Predict the 3D structure of the following.
Amino acid sequence: MANSPAHRRPSRRKARGAGIVPWLFISPWILGFLFFTLGPLMFSFIMSLYDWPVVGARTFVGLDNYTTMLRYDPQFWDSLWITVKFAALFVPLNIILSFGLAVLLNLNLRGTAIFRTAFYLPSVISGVALVTIWSWLYSKEYGLLNYMLSFAGIEGPNWLGDTGWAIFAITIASLWGLGGSMLIFLAGLQSVPKELYEAARISGVPPWAQVIHITLPMLSPMLLFTFITSIISAFQQLTIALLLTKGGPVGSTYFFAMYIYDNAFKFHDMGYAAAMSWVMFLIILVLSMLVMRWSTAWVYYEGEVKKEGGHG
Amino acid sequence: MTEAPNHIGLEKGHVDLAGLRIEGLVKSYGPIDVLKGIDLDIRDGEFVSFLGPSGCGKSTLLRSIAGLEGLTDGAIHLGARDITDLPSARRDIAMVFQNYALYPHMNVKKNMSFGLSLNGMTTDEIERRVNEAAEILRITELLGRKPKQLSGGQRQRVAIGRAIVRKPQLFLLDEPLSNLDAGLRVTMRAELAALHERLGVTMVYVTHDQVEAMTLSHRVVVLDKGRVSQFGTPLELFHRPANLFVAGFIGSPRMNFLPAYLTDQTGRSVTLTATAMTGALTIATSGHSPLDAGQPITLGVRPDRLDIVADGTGHLTGTIRLMERLGTESHAHVALDDGTMLVVITDGTHPARAHDRVGLTIPPDAAHVFDASGLALPRQLDAETERLIQQQ
């Protein structure tokens, strides 16, 4: 907004009009962004510097919320550790499974269209409905999952009631939404020129090596994207844990996001919750930056070299 | 592979040469027959082109030889081996693709060596082969670059290099020059010819460009709707086309055709005339089975063999509709009085202009005669042309 109309002379009315009109056209988005995204974002930072109960006096406490969190709140570290464990399970599984499914769907076998829809369907189902279904499946006595396992002679665990199993139960339920990343991989697979594989076939490159040396590098930008978005969604995991286990048993699925939620809406300590949100933001930011930096070693972009030396 | 010690042996005489024999090859996609029974015998070290319009099946035939397409019926032999059911990798072939099919994330060297290293070849051997191929193709200084950093011609060289390092018995090239601009295409054409000369290996080349086919090949397979229309030397196709399709396809501008009918046939000569024609034309053949007197026949004359003469003389009369001046030659588009359009190639400075009435003469030795089914009557050629055809 360097050319703000206010700095112009009244005589240049035409130019002034031209300056305002474009802004008017984009104003619905700009206003929405200012009031509903950037505003609350900045506001939450200010909040994080206050002792901010939902009702009652607000006191400026500087960085107290942050120091309390880092030095005097074992619950913060516990919930962070649980979230990291979850991410360590969820991120690789999400990438491997959605990539594997995409490769299978790309083989053009019979019924591909049906499976493609089936795998994507959970991604469009509302989270609450999805969790309700999973809570039935996981039920120790009446759950479908343990019923099926009983056929194989396995006595299924208490999925949601066992401190060891609950985090796996949540991971599995989260993976149900891998349809989105699967579609991204599928689109990527279909954009790899067929001739690359044919050339490899003629050169005697076995199929597994074609996947490793051709498919994976060609899909590396999609892998990077999925990697980062998976990390973000893992750290933001709230819905499934909140509805399925409520953080239990014995806090074994008490995720970072749930601790923020409780601080804000149960303990009504908005300032502390805001501070935690900013810490989460910083963690995700740093992780994403590390992944991006590391990615230059393995991500190949189609257009990258072109800019430097293409003289086609 | 027989090779002298300490010699990499990519060049002529150090590769097992092998002819390619195709018998009764049929390829169908569902109810559609793309290749309807192909028989070909390609000799050791020969350069053969598959030429034809789009959809004639030339690429499918090449891909069948490569093992990228399964056959519906028929057999393929390479040298003494039956490769019909062998996977591509074990056929001992290499293929160059139209769009080069270079691995974009690998540098030139890796592109060339990728297949070799996965097949257990020693690093030393790979190094030697890549370096020699790079030297032959003059791309040594490009070995560290990625495909995106190369020009079209350089990419093409890398694609060929990737084929060379395999030391295959057979090279398959699928329209390798069609993505290059006109000037580069001419240069690469000459380089391909030189490469074939140097390697001496059997090469099969798919193209829709007759100039490429004619200039590069020992022999050309003209394909039409999934069948071999004619298999012969370039000059044979030009001077003795086997049928109307080949006659019309080879040569540019294309051969002129006139509907005609037989008036007489004695021994090795036929006399014919056409509705648009004044008088008759007696043409010598090199021997043909007698024609049915009543059947319609087609007279073909190449544009460069028609001569423009004064109105009222010659075999044909018409009006010039368009005179295209190309410098060294002029193309006159002549509408005969019955509406048939002919093209005549004449001198670049020929004085005739559009709207002029002209006569045209047909030298009898320039005439091609096709029977009702479109098959050519074998032409009587002069001794020199005959010798040239055979020499090729």
Remarks:
- Residues 1-6, 305-312 of chain A have pLDDT under 50 and may be disordered.
- The longest strand of chain A covers residues 50-51.
- Chain A touches chain B at residues 193, 195-196, 198-206, 209, 213-214, 217-218, 220, 300, 302, 304-306, 308-312 (CB under 8 Å).
